[in-house]
Amino acid sequence: MRSYDKYHYLFYQRMLHLNLMELSNDIVLRPRFSLELDVLPENVLSTFEDVAKTQSDFIISRSDDHVFIRIPKHKQHFWSPQLHLEVYKIEEQPTILKGLFGPKPTVWTLFMFLHFIIATLFIGAGVWLYTNIALKASYIFPIVTMVFLFIFWFVLYFSGRLGKEAGKKEMRALHSFMYDTLNQITVQ
């Protein structure tokens, strides 16, 4: 059994057991994985480049040691994931392939920006609350603001979880495509 077949099997079993990276009680919006391969990184990277020329189901782009596998524009929706692969080798160790499933960079940036704004406003409302308590003024508005921001944060979090759920079928397709491509390395 080739090393990546073994890891594919173990990873697939883990995915089935965890229902595609649905970890109990863990906050995992961008699932990650790592594989050790018995081939040179350049072979892996060139295989992805070769496959990109012969298929149209996915958009594959390479930048140095990174490969990005995306869903084509006409099949994408707001929550469509992408798979980012990093392939490298350190001295005499096996080649490492690290993968990260995540939303499109624009969606991820929007979510991080909104989380940052909410956190900043929440801290500001806390300072406002403390100031009003120290001045013995009414502090109902700062409390209402903090509760509203907390609720809005939960809405953002659960919309991200729903988005990940909406992209599960595409995540499975990206994952399967990656392993199909890795299995082509020895065929060449």
Low-confidence stretches: 10-27
**Whole-number mean pLDDT:** 84
Distance between the termini: 17 Å
CATH uppermost class of the largest domain: Alpha Beta
Going by CATH, the homologous superfamily of the largest domain would be Kinase associated domain 1, KA1
| Main sheet strand line-up | 1-5-4-3-2
The backbone outline, from C-alpha atoms, is elongated
In the residues, how many domains can be counted? 2
Query: What is the total tally of β strands?
Result: 5
Helix content: 40-55%
The percentage of residues in β strands lies in: 15-25%
Following the backbone from N to C, one meets helices and strands in this order, namely HEHEEEEHHH
Query: How big is the Rg?
Result: 22 Å
CATH architecture of the largest domain, by name, is: 2-Layer Sandwich
Describe this structure in words.
A hairpin with a 6-residue loop joins strand 4 (81-88) and strand 5. The radius of gyration is 22 Å and the shape is elongated. It has 188 residues and is α+β, with helices and mostly antiparallel strands. The protein has helices at 3-18, 41-54, 105-134, 140-166, 168-183, and strands spanning 32-37, 59-63, 66-70, 81-88, 95-103. The chain has a five-stranded antiparallel β-sheet with strand order 1-5-4-3-2. The protein folds into two domains: 3-104 and 168-182, TATA-Binding Protein; 108-162. Helix content is 55%, strand content 18%.
In a nutshell, what does this entry contain?
This protein is of the alpha+beta class and 188 residues long. It contains five helices and five strands; from the N terminus they run H-E-H-E-E-E-E-H-H-H. The protein has helices spanning 3-18, 41-54, 105-134, 140-166, 168-183; strands spanning 32-37, 59-63, 66-70, 81-88, 95-103.
